[in-house]
Every structure is written in C-alpha cells, then in structure tokens.
Task: structure prediction
Amino acid sequence: MSSNTTNIAKLLEYFARGVAAHDRETDHHAWGIGMHPFDLDRLGLEEGEEILPGILLQADRGVTGNFRILCDGQHDGEDAEVEEEEVLDAVATELVPRVTPPV
Result:
C-alpha cells in the first residue's frame, strides 16, 4: 500500500467517524465535509466529490489540517435564545493618584 493510499484510507475513516458522531449527537442531516481548498488540492481531492455515500466535499475557509461536518442545522447557537445583558456604569468612589514612570 502506498503512503498516499494509506493517508486517504485514514482520512476516510476520520470522515466516517465524524459523520457518525454528528449523526449520533444531533438531529441534523449531515450532507458534506468542509475542508480548506489547500487541503483538498494537497490530497488530490475535488470539491463536489462524493467522498462517502451521500457526503460531498466542500471547499471552505476553515483551518488547514482540519475538516468539519456540514449539515442542514445550526450548531453555533444562532438559533438559541439571546440573553439580555445588564449594563452598569462604573464610577469610582476614590481618587487614585496618577503615577508617571521615570524617564
């Protein structure tokens, strides 16, 4: 087995594990793997290629060396309720002398 074949086999295993973990932990439908364009090119992969059954490769601007599972849901909290923040004015009650450093 060549080094590139071994690398692709490991990558496919990581992809399959990532999709399985995603599907196990969420109700969203996974449809793709997002990778930095540099990584796609380096590995000889094509954007839009079906890498696993029903899972397409998508170029994105993520961090090189990483991949992410793409799905039809939102995972970054955009659909979560927004909490209201209390804003306070900070006012000092004591005067602090100004210290100037020696020149």
